[in-house]
Design goal:
single chain, 107 residues, mainly alpha, two-stranded antiparallel ribbon, 4 helices, 2 strands, elongated, binds zinc ion
């Protein structure tokens, strides 16, 4: 099994990720550094809205993981913004679909 955080090394353990109800496979270097999967950090940050609005511990996890994976915080924030925009667009599309269904049902 490959480490889900760096996606480079062989995984040595599966452990929970702080603040997120998931467990991921870690290699020893990622466990030692506190490197987490960027997809999980991005998704959970997008649920809050902006990195600046998250807890300091979460921001530390993001800073460590971005640094370890060669990503800038500017890149991370831009990705969060893109995900938030996509979620908002899909929410409105789903609302339109729901409104159309209600019209068809005579609601
Ligand atoms: Zn790793």
């Amino acid at each position: 099994m490959i480490c889900e955080c760096c996606v480079i090394h062989q995984a040595h353990a599966v452990a929970s990720m702080p603040s997120v109800p998931i467990s991921v496979a870690f290699c020893l270097p990622c466990l030692a550094v506190g490197n987490y999967p960027l997809w999980a950090l991005l998704a959970n940050t997008a649920c809050v809205g902006r990195l600046e609005d998250t807890a300091e511990d979460w921001q530390d996890m993001v800073r460590r993981s971005c640094a370890y994976q060669g990503k800038s915080l500017e890149w991370f924030s831009a990705e969060v913004g893109r995900i938030v925009s996509k979620m908002e667009r899909e929410m409105y599309e789903n609302n339109d679909t729901l409104a159309l269904k209600q019209d068809n049902w005579g609601c």
